Amino acid sequence: MKKLLIATKNQGKIKEIKKELTDFAMDIVGLENVNLPEDSAVQEPAITMEGNAIIKAMTYGNKTGLLTLAEDAGLEVDALNGRPGVLSARYASGTDKDRYLKLLREMQAVSDKKRGAQFRSVIAIYDPESEKIRTCEGIYRGKIIQTPKGKQGFGYDPIFLNENLGKTNAQMTAEEKNSVSHRGKALKNAKEILKKEFKQ
Ligand code: ITT
């Protein structure tokens, strides 16, 4: 079976990606399964998520020689004109909690009606043999609540409410989150692209 490297260091992402790809006809490997030089941290210098996803997929694909899937994701808040967006992981130093608490502080004066937001996931797939690269994305709309809720998921999940389901991402299992989320949607697109364009 053809190997597919999932090139992310984020444990929350790995869990969701692996869950979505369980029945997929490729041999899924993580960065922990491949030998990489010590200095293999990847900078994310691009000003778009697409640019950063491509940089990550190409860097790890070229280092390992494997077909590689990488993702760049972020939270785009309406009242902040789309911030933190591509800078979501670097919005504040410290932990995920430090970052979502900073966001809640920044949004303290924003009324209930204006708290719309969306997650965006951009996936890049790169084959170092053919040098072919493809990207796809998924968007997931919801609302930033005032008080964090739930313990599952990662990142900004405790403050992101799915209004249809009446719960935050952090109150969902990985499976349930995948069925509605940006990453779930992007992965469904990615599976189609992999089947059509990267199967030998
Ligand atoms: P890799 O680059 O190794 O994949 P990362 O954590 O640096 O991992 P990103 O550069 O894509 O990932 O940053 C995405 C940030 O956006 C991440 O740190 C989270 O804070 C947030 N984020 C992305 N998807 C999320 C989700 O599904 N739920 C909550 N927060 C999310």
Name the overall outline. globular
| Beta-strand percentage range | 15-25%
What's the β-strand tally? 7
Mean pLDDT: 95
Q: Domain count, please report it.
A: 1
**What name does the CATH topology carry?**
Maf protein
What's the helical proportion of residues?
Answer: 25-40%
Largest sheet geometry = 7 strands, mixed
Bound molecules: inosine 5'-triphosphate
User: What is the radius of gyration computed over CA atoms, rounded to a whole number of angstroms?
Assistant: 17 Å
Can you walk me through this structure?
- There is one protein chain.
- With 200 residues, this protein is α/β, with parallel strands linked by helices.
- It has one domain (3-197): Maf protein.
- The chain has 5 helices and 7 strands; from the N terminus they run E-H-E-H-E-H-E-E-E-E-H-H.
- It has helices spanning 11-20, 49-64, 96-106, 174-180, 182-197; strands at residues 3-6, 27-30, 67-77, 116-127, 132-144, 160-162, 167-168.
- Strands 2-1-3-4-5-6-7 form a 7-stranded mixed β-sheet.
- Helix 1 (11-20) packs across helix 4, helix 1 (11-20) packs across helix 5 (182-197) and helix 4 crosses helix 5.
- The structure holds inosine 5'-triphosphate.
- Inosine 5'-triphosphate (ITT) is lined by residues 8-10, 13, 44, 56, 71-75, 88-89, 96, 119, 153-157, 169, 181, 183.
